[in-house]
Amino acid sequence: MYKLVPLAAFVAILSACSEPAATPADTMAAAPAAVEPAPAAPMVEAKDIVDTAVGAGSFSTLVAAVQAAGLESTLRGAGPFTVFAPTDAAFAALPAGTVEDLLKPENKDKLTAILTYHVLPGEVMSSAIAGQTLEPATVRGATLKAVGGADGSVMINDAKVVTADIDASNGVIHVIDKVIMPPAK
What we know:
Number of helices: 8
Mean pLDDT: 79
CATH architecture of the domain at 49-125 and 161-176: Roll
CATH class of the domain at 49-125 and 161-176: Mainly Beta
Radius of gyration: 29 Å
Oligomer: single chain
Shape: globular
CATH superfamily of the domain at 49-125 and 161-176: FAS1 domain
Low-confidence stretches: 1-35, 40-44
CATH topology of the domain at 49-125 and 161-176: FAS1 domain
Order of helices and strands: HHHHHEHHHEEEEEE
Largest sheet: 7 strands, mixed
Helix content: 25-40%
Structural class: alpha+beta
């Protein structure tokens, strides 16, 4: 039984067979084709910590808190910073009304204390914590307890790092599953 070959395939086969094969003399006589340089890859400007958080889409409460505390320009600054960033779900897990209360202008100092407890001066990648227990000082001045498991897991106080090492132009973000509260001064 014969199979019918589509007309386009048949024409392509015929035209391939009808072209004369190139001889070595033909290939040597042909001028080399001009090779154009590949276009340069577009420069992708790394986003700062605030823009990176905004772009992620799961930090709208954190970004609103940073803005209410007047810390946005600092976290857009040169840095470098390490930010332990609670997700919107982490803020939602706080007692009812806590976030709304913290965002009030009269509670700016308390909000600032909480947010600056989530920030380290300098860039600390998760690999620097692996297998260690550290107590780095935050920009607030209080210390955190950072515990790195041999399996790559990291705990910051009682919060788990759920996504580590999100690069930003002025530091790094580690996503955490809880809002960590600073010790009382």
